[in-house]
Amino acid sequence: MLSYAAAMTGIASHVHRVRLRLLSPAIILTGVICILQAWPPSGLFFKTAFSLNYGLWFFIYPGLVGLTCLVDPSGKLAARSGGAWMLSQAGTTLLAGCAGNSGHYMWVGFLSFLLCLISAICVVFIKPHQMVAP
Question: What's the whole-model pTM score?
Answer without folding.
Answer: 0.72
